[in-house]
Amino acid sequence: xxxxxxxxxxxxxxxxxxxxxxxxxxxxxxxxxxxxxxxxxxxxxxxxxxxxxxxxxxxxxxxxxxxxxxxxxxxxxxxxxxxxxxxxxxxxxxxxxxxxxxxxxxxxxxxxxxxxxxxxxxxxxxxxxxxxxxxxxxxxxxxxxxxxxxxxxxxxxxxxxxxxxxxxxxxxxxxxxxxxxxxxxxxxxxxxxxxxxxxxxxxxxxxxxxxxxxxxxxxxxxxxxxxxxxxxxxxxxxxxxxxxxxxxxxxxxxxxxxxxxxxxxxxxxxxxxxxxxxxxxxxxxxxxxxxxxxxxxxxxxxxxxxxxxxxxxxxxxxxxxxxxxxxxxxxxxxxxxxxxxxxxxxxxxxxxxxxxxxxxxxxxxxxxxxxxxxxxxxxxxxxxxxxxxxxxxxxxxxxxxxxxxxxxxxxxxxxxxxxxxxxxxxxxxxxxxxxxxxxxxxxxxxxxxxxxxxxxxxxxxxxxxxxxxxxxxxxxxxxxxxxxxxxxxxxxxxxxxxxxxxxxxxxxxxxxxxxxxxxx
Length: 520
Ligand code: NDP
Description:
Blueprint: E1 31-35, E2 42-47, H1 51-70, H2 73-89, H3 91-102, H4 106-130, E3 134-136, E4 144-152, E5 155-159, H5 167-178, E6 182-186, H6 192-205, E7 212-214, H7 219-226, E8 231-235, H8 238-251, E9 255-258, E10 263-267, H9 273-285, E11 295-301, H10 302-316, H11 337-352, E12 356-359, E13 375-378, E14 395-401, H12 404-411, E15 419-423, H13 427-434, E16 441-444, E17 465-466, H14 471-476, E18 479-487, H15 501-516
Bound molecules: NADPH dihydro-nicotinamide-adenine-dinucleotide phosphate.
């Protein structure tokens, strides 16, 4: 079962240096074709893992976890920081692979690599401190000693999507491994080679092969993985997330869910309209709109509505749509036919219900089969599908609102709660308004960027997910705590009551002290 990644390469950019390693011998069965969205040509095949291969991979990971977790946190973190340096040295290869699988522009692929590099440094410096044994306040100080230790869950199953195939896999994988877990990954079948490349390099720098493994396949392979692992880190659509969460809950294994979004932008009367327009365009059309954190709806207060439309039209003329390499292109190809169809049907529905097209609205077959023009729509309302469902394509709908209160009400009128943006010169008022938005992340005068700040926990509420990545929470979700209370009175006479005379005396006095000195 050999892959034919190199044999079928249709483009000039892919080289032998980008060939991923062969998968494990146990990985066999049918082959999944992988397509370059820019050309529509098949660039390779990936063997699909059957149920037995998934079970065997988790079993190997479970055995490897004993030795991996026995290594110090510092040792594991250092190894993974070395890996990130190696990735950085070879980033040109990785950019090629990401672009061949997703059709995104070069800056988009580079941003994925930068963000993971940043996270590797962040946890390498902090994880040893956060994961070490912690002393806590005992019931009776001096007589008792209270401590917390953090233990990895065991084998983490990562199920990841295709839109940011490097970022959304390694952002979760790094803290999982540093915490002492081993991992089995099921990447999207659309983008398996990015995962293969990154994990292959981990093995090259010395991470044992069974500590990180990949199984390939479609939904059934992901579903099989959930049956065996000790923690599920899922990133994908809300519909699939619900199924994954149900099964994990039945097995009583912990999980995190990074799901879909319908992120709103709120534009207030005192906003800088040029900054607002350029940021809306960037965040709506980054990765051709195929980002969970895309701005998918904008509420603009009436006094600046027309002026903002004008600024949007002006700045949109500068957007470069292209499938070529280089740092100039802003918008690349969509990745799948499914996204193209949904974009077209959301646009048709909005136009039929009275939306006004400012720019775009057409495919670009001259560039490739899945290119679509960045499309701005004015005069939208909540009766339209594109205001309710995740589009995951290059549409930016705008709604005119009377004031900030109406903007907040409409922004919160959604099952999703991933992130939002507020545009205003009054930063204090914008922060107060942010607190009224029902979502996990808010950006003020920016969009999408929280995920690039490793110290900020990021993630959704309600239909957008459960749990956080990045920050302290992003590491600590990969461990469970064990609390140990040691009683030092081993020379005391034995007692069968909880309140022996000394405990009783101390507890009564401590109760009074703690009533007034709670830090005791
Ligand atoms: P899907 O939910 O379709 O797939 C996500 C992953 O789950 C894929 O690897 C998929 O495999 C796998 N899968 C599918 N069915 C099952 C199942 N029954 N059990 C276990 N695993 C399964 O999402 P997409 O790949 O289409 O990604 C796009 C979605 O992801 C969007 O909704 C987007 O908003 C969301 N997303 C959320 C992010 C966040 O951080 N909140 C970030 C990025 C994307 P396969 O692809 O092989 O079918």
